[in-house]
Design brief:
Keywords: Acetylation, Cytoplasm, Developmental protein, Isopeptide bond, Nucleus, Phosphoprotein, Ubl conjugation. About 10% of the residues lie in helices and about 30% in strands. By secondary structure, the chain is mainly beta. It has a single domain, classed as Gyrase A, domain 2, CATH 3.30.1360.230.
Length: about 100
């Protein structure tokens, strides 16, 4: 939702300062551009997602938005965008520093 309204969405690491931010076209202050959709600034990675691609992702990830339990781990891949997202069970993070 946020990305379709010209906003951004950030995932922050529990282990430190690293973060990944999905930004949409037109977000002020974004380092990622249509020419360079992946941009790093120190430990912060920005990934530009066009409205068309956000719509595609929403369709592909729809099964995660149901009340039914999804079998994890689950991997989603968009090779044309060089993007892969893994959804892992909470148990993987029970001891994140090990």
């Amino acid at each position: 939702g946020r990305l379709l309204h010209g906003r951004h969405f950030t995932y922050k690491s529990i282990n430190g300062d690293t973060a990944i931010t999905f930004v949409s076209t037109g977000v002020e202050g974004a380092f990622a551009t249509e020419e360079n959709p992946y941009a790093a600034h120190g430990p912060w990675l920005q990934i530009l997602l066009t409205e068309e691609f956000v719509e595609q992702m929403l369709g592909d990830l729809q099964e995660l938005n149901t009340r039914e339990e999804t079998k994890l781990p689950k991997e989603y891949s968009w090779p044309e965008k060089k993007l892969k997202i893994s959804v892992l069970p909470d148990s993987v993070f029970d001891n994140p520093l090990q």
